[in-house]
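Contributing new records

If you add data, match the layout below exactly. Sequence lines come first and carry their own label; structure lines follow with theirs. Keep one chain per record. Anything else will be rejected by the validation script.
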Amino acid sequence: MIVDMGCGKGYLTFAAYDWLRRSGGNAAMVRGIEARADLVELCNRAAQENRFDGLRFETGNIADANLDRADVLIALHACDTATDDAIAWGVRAGASLIIASPCCHRELRPQLRPPPVLADALRHGILLERQAEFVTDALRAALLEWAGYDTKVFEFISTEHTAKNLMIAATKRSGPPSRADDARKVRELAAGYGICRQRLATHLGLDLSTGAAST
């Protein structure tokens, strides 16, 4: 099953379902989760009209989604910490593949205490903003590694179309995660920028303080 969190009007959701059908996946199941009930109604009507029997849309917030499993988790431009909610849901659901394109990195900027060598450079607001984006997504990738995933972070579309063109792709490992070493990496990255809390870390139960016991 593919789950698209914060699917909006379902452009990506419909495309994923259509691609699966054309690739021979006639029994494919795709679910879209969206908070706006009017969009859910619109998308369900379109799915029914086109006889897409395996495609359904449900009203709800990402953090409260009541589906209990997913093979693939998608979150395209879920705003700020909604990306963390989606990633955490995918980890808990045991998704083999998590694909997230983050947006609106607001959570960490007020906490950010840059290393001394960067302090003067980051007095410029735009540079601080971009650094906050970097730290947020680097932490997300590191947390996914700690949770047992191999990650890639890359640009997936030209900046001519959108500046929000970063993608985090995480593939679940077959073996157990090396939690102690990966936890150390996450905590050192957070400590380097004065980060004490981050939503994905909270969801996954990893204490960011450097003195915490290895998990």
